[in-house]
Design a protein that fits this description.
Elements (H helix, E strand, L loop, with lengths): L1 H15 L54 E2 L7 E2 L2 E10 L2 E11 L5 E7 L6 E8 L7 E8 L2 E9 L4 E6 L5 E7 L10 E9 L1
Antiparallel strand pairs: 1-11, 2-5, 3-4, 4-11, 5-10, 6-9, 6-11, 7-8, 7-10
Length: 200
């Protein structure tokens, strides 16, 4: 009985003893490996692309070369010009007003004058209305239009009788427009070239 009592009473002392061995608890934890996602993008098979009918042809670098659009000659700067030449302005021909025109001007413009333009071989037709301004003191002028030195129009234009011109400039490089007094006494009428349009 005493032995049992001793053991019973001594158990707490052994458990609370600083030298008592503490139990070691080991726990195994399984950590799953991270999932790796691989994304594969499938490219569709490229189909050949063909240009639609009537599309512009390719230039030297392989890019499409766009055709030029109609262009007013008034937007071109002359590559050469006399003391008197053509200036951008407006005029009235037989009661019709032209807000966009080339008009004679400069020193001695009532005697003669000229201007030249680079067409760059891009155009096929030049259209314009040629005449003498309704407010001009003098009434006539001689007009000569040349392409690469070849005459494409020569004639006289008179007050109240404008001329509608459609001139062939296909493949031409240099356009020259010359005017002069018909009587050679420096009493030329005020020349107006209304809506001078280059057409490709």
């Amino acid at each position: 009985m005493a032995g049992l009592l001793f053991g019973y009473l001594g158990l707490p002392a052994i458990a609370n003893s600083p030298t008592a061995a503490r139990p070691t608890v080991t726990k195994t934890v399984s950590v799953p490996e991270p999932a790796v996602t691989v994304t594969v993008t499938a490219s569709p098979t490229s189909a050949p692309v063909s240009l639609p009918t009537g599309s512009p042809s390719s230039g030297p670098d392989g890019t499409p070369s766009a055709s030029p659009k109609p262009l007013l000659l008034t937007t071109m700067y002359p590559v050469a010009k006399g003391t008197a030449g053509l200036n951008v302005g407006g005029g009235t021909l037989n009661s019709q007003r032209f807000e966009t025109a080339l008009v004679s001007g400069g020193s001695g413009s009532h005697c003669s004058g000229w201007s030249e333009y680079n067409l760059g071989r891009q155009w096929t037709t030049l259209t314009l209305t040629a005449g003498i301004d309704d407010y001009s003191a003098d009434t006539a002028s001689r007009l000569d239009i040349l392409a690469d030195g070849e005459s494409i129009f020569t004639g006289e234009v008179d007050l109240g009788v404008p001329k509608e011109l459609s001139l062939d400039v296909k493949g031409r490089l240099r356009l020259s427009i010359r005017y002069a007094d018909t009587a050679k006494n420096c009493h030329m009428g005020d020349l107006v070239l209304g809506n001078p349009l280059l057409v490709p």
